[in-house]
Amino acid sequence: MLIRTGNLRKSYFLNKNRIEALKGIDMEVRQGSFTAIVGPSGSGKSTLLYILGCLTQPSEGTYLLDGTDVSSLSDRSLSKIRNRNIGFIFQTFNLIPQMTVLENTEIPLVHSGTARKERLEISRKYLEMVGLSHRLLHRPSELSGGEMQRAAIARALVTEPLLVLADEPTGNLDSKIGSEIIEILRSLNSSGKTVIIVTHSSSIAACADEIISLRDGRVDENH
């Protein structure tokens, strides 16, 4: 198993009110699988994905990633694991407007200390893979939504992560472009990448090997 969680809980305060976003999540994800996390708004989907992506830590419980318990690591250790093992694709793309597509794609490799020549080679390779080799020097404002998401996917892949996480990656795209993005993720999965996607779409979830349904911060066993 690439991922195991035990009694994973997350709570936070909003206007002095304690909100329990996750209420004891037990789940497993196999290496090389394609998993969809589904559920209504407010069910804890994105909170769970952010914990799996080492972007935030659980309030309680354990999270084993490739055998390492990351649930209580320091921010610095989490950052190293995130940069080395996890590629994150966001609904809002999170591209830096002042940078070109190529420069945006290089960012994780800059953080990992990769030499510039190698950074350029790797970034070009993945931008070509997602069909953006003709857009290397364009800025995000010059791209369509689908092209921005392709650039975000290339950026997520340059470090050869163990795990690719996607938070509603088609949420801002029309259905045709959304289908193309899902095909890219399926192709990644076919090449051996473990992919976890949060989605509201039943048709996208149907592409997955495993579906984890959340309701009110818990796994919905009746789904």
Task: Give the topology, please.
Blueprint lengths: L2 E12 L2 E13 L4 E5 L6 H8 L7 E6 L2 E2 L5 H11 E4 L11 H11 L4 H14 L15 H13 L5 E5 L7 H16 L3 E5 L3 H4 L4 E6 L2 E2 L4
Structural notes for this entry:
The chain contains 7 helices and 10 strands. The protein is of the alpha/beta class and 223 residues long. It has a single domain (30-58, 72-219), classed as P-loop containing nucleotide triphosphate hydrolases (Rossmann fold, 3-Layer(aba) Sandwich). The strands form 2 sheets. Strands 6-7-8-3-9-10 form a 6-stranded mixed sheet, sandwiched between helices. Helix 6 links the parallel strand 7 (163-167) and strand 8 (194-198). Helix 3 (101-111) packs across helix 4 (116-129) and helix 3 runs parallel beside helix 5 (145-157). The model has no long low-confidence stretch (mean pLDDT 92).
Keywords:
Rossmann fold; 6-stranded mixed β-sheet; 7 helices; single chain; 223 residues; alpha/beta
Mind summarizing the main beta sheet?
Answer: 6 strands, mixed
The top-level CATH class is Alpha Beta
Instruction: State the strand order across the main sheet.
Output: 6-7-8-3-9-10
Low-confidence stretches: none
Question: What is the count of β-strands?
Answer: 10
- The proportion of residues in beta strands is 25-35%
Number of helices: 7
On the 0-100 scale, what is the average pLDDT? 92
Q: Quickly count the domains.
A: 1
Shape: globular
What is the CATH topology assignment? Answer: Rossmann fold
Order of helices and strands: EEEHEEHEHHHEHEHEE
CATH architecture: 3-Layer(aba) Sandwich
End-to-end distance, in Å? 22 Å
Helix share, percent: 25-40%
Provide the gyration radius in Å.
Answer: 17 Å
